[in-house]
Amino acid sequence: MKTSKLHPIAFAGIISISSSATAATSIRVSIQTTGPVGLAPGIAGFSNGSFDIFDPGSAASAALENLAETGSPAGFMPSSGGAILGPGVGPGSPPIFAPGASGSAVFEVADGDNMFHFASMLLPSNDWFIGNGDGFDVSSLLGASNGSSLFFDFTTVWDAGTELEDFDFSPGNPLIGIMNPGGGAADFGTDQGGVVTALSGSDPFGAFANADLGFDSTQFDFTGEPIARVTLEVIPEPSTSLLAGLSILLGLSRRRRH
């Protein structure tokens, strides 16, 4: 599998599934959409390298098809240190990530889980997504000092090859000015029977069927501009923060007694 140019990203609201058997590093994963399109809820997490989301040039798995066509990441879970990121999972998490939206989640990452994974449906589309097929190595953050960080841009948009492009079955149309609300269920549109391929070039929405006549598709392009940016930052572990707070309180208490 080729390593994608894309590199990770993440959202507000999580259900954590992390390993506590070994030492862990607290990492805040933040995402901001930087392009003119949006994102659905996604899957983000860390693994020991045994987890995989997709292979370019191969048919999409059932889990990837569900994610790319409906925005649901429920079929995926990294082998360890993973979380599902999406609406209603945590306080204040948005139903979608519109252009310019951002969010974050904190992961307790075990020492062996140095590979980061992410995938999310691109809105609007029938089966387009961003993500990294191979895990991205973040070993430099594990056990690193607080404030250590990495950031990466997602620049490639992938076509899962599972459904033909048609705005009648494309969730998120209003994000780019198409007032038809579109579909949202897996296999709701016409099956494509293709493989996962990278999209490129200008006017990516120009070939969609049932476009609103007033929609100017030429304002969009996938020629290398970032779709979203992900930042991973090491933060104090909750236990460390608690001990620091207790130390401060004890110090204040001693001063008052004296």
Automatic annotation (TrEMBL):
Name of the protein this chain belongs to: Ice-binding protein C-terminal domain-containing protein
Signal peptide: 1-23
Keyword Signal appears in the UniProt entry: yes
Keyword entries, A-Z: Signal
Ranges for domain Ice-binding protein C-terminal: 235-257
Highest classification ranks of the organism: Bacteria, Pseudomonadati, Verrucomicrobiota, Verrucomicrobiia, Verrucomicrobiales
Alphabetized NCBIfam families for the sequence: NF038123_dom (NF038123), PEP_CTERM (TIGR02595)
InterPro entries the UniProt entry points to: Ice-binding_C (IPR013424), Spondin_N (IPR009465), Spondin_N_sf (IPR038678)
